[in-house]
Amino acid sequence: MLPEDLKQKLMEVDSSRNKRQEVAFWITKKPHYVRETLQWCFTEDSELLVQSAWVLEIICEHKAKNFFKYMHLFFEKLPTIKNDSALRSCAKICEMLCHYHFMKGFGIFYEVLNKNERKIITECCFDWLITDQKVACQAPAMQCLYYLGWDNDKKWIYPELKNILIENAPQKSAGYQARARKILKKIS
Predict the structure, then answer these.
(1) Which residues, 6+ apart, have CB-to-CB distance to 141 below 8 Å?
(2) DSSP string for 27-41
(3) Sign of CA dihedral 119, 123, 124, 129
(4) How far, in Å, CA of 75 to CA of 117, rounded?
(5) What's the maximum distance between 2 C-alpha atoms anywhere in the chain?
(6) Origin, by domain of life (predicted)?
(7) What is the predicted pLDDT for the residue at 182?
(8) 145 vs 148: CA distance, rounded Å
(9) Comparing C-alpha atoms, which of 140, 122, 129 is closest to residue 172?
(10) Calpha distance 96→82 (Å, rounded)
(11) Distance (Å, rounded) from C-alpha 145 to C-alpha 154?
(12) What gap in Å lies between CA 137 and CA 133, rounded to an integer?
């Protein structure tokens, strides 16, 4: 059961970035609430599923270390998420995690994702690209796969990604096509 004060805060979340940030920063002051929010994010019949996902995206962006502690919960449930709005936030979280992991040269974070977590992201991202998802989910998936292709044991990703993007781009939106061109340029 969700603690009452956390539930009240999540009920305040709306689509504005300011409100999302306000609640996200409130949650990180009580780090165990990050765990509660993650569990709520993956409860399909939850009336606060979308708000939880939105807040987790902000936490991962601005207070990533608070997210890392409970990240295993995210990966346990990631393949099961179906809600479009929550899926978009989860795709953005995956993109940020890949960025943190592969940008270790900048000294921000190092080895954020273990091998199994990278495998889960890879599978989910390919799934999001080949199923009928919105561009808001597919664009971060492309970026994740671009990063994941840097792994020595994942050199197979680029040819697969290239085939999907070339095949799908003509039927997709301008946003999809722009991101696909950007990724294709990087992997060619």
Answers:
(1) 91, 94, 124, 125, 126, 128, 129, 133
(2) HHTSTHHHHHHHHHH
(3) positive
(4) 7
(5) 52
(6) Bacteria
(7) 97
(8) 5
(9) 129
(10) 20
(11) 10
(12) 6
Phi, psi dihedral angles at 152 (to 5 degrees): -60, -35
What's the pLDDT tens digit per position in 50-91? 999 999 999 999 999 899 999 999 999 999 998 999 999 999
Predicted confidence at residue 147, as pLDDT, reads 95
Range scoring the smallest mean pLDDT among 28-32, 126-130, 141-145: 28-32
Q: Which residue has the tokens 């270790």?
A: 104
> What is the rounded CA–CA span in Å between residue 112 and residue 92?
16
Reduce the DSSP state of residue 2 to 3 states and report it. Answer: coil
Q: How many residues does the chain have?
A: 188
> What is the C-alpha separation between 188 and 172, in angstroms, rounded?
21
Element (H, E) at 135: helix 135-148
How many CB atoms within 10 Å of residue 43? 13
Structure tokens at 121: 């992201």
Q: Please report which helix (H) or strand (E) contains residue 94, including its range.
A: helix 84-102
Q: Which of 63, 11, 12, 14 is nearest to 34 (CA)?
A: 63
Task: Yes or no: say if 60 and 93 are a contact pair by the CB < 8 Å rule.
Answer: yes
pLDDT of residue 152: 79
DSSP 142-185: HHHHHHHTTSGGGTTHHHHHHHHHHHHGGGS-HHHHHHHHHHHH
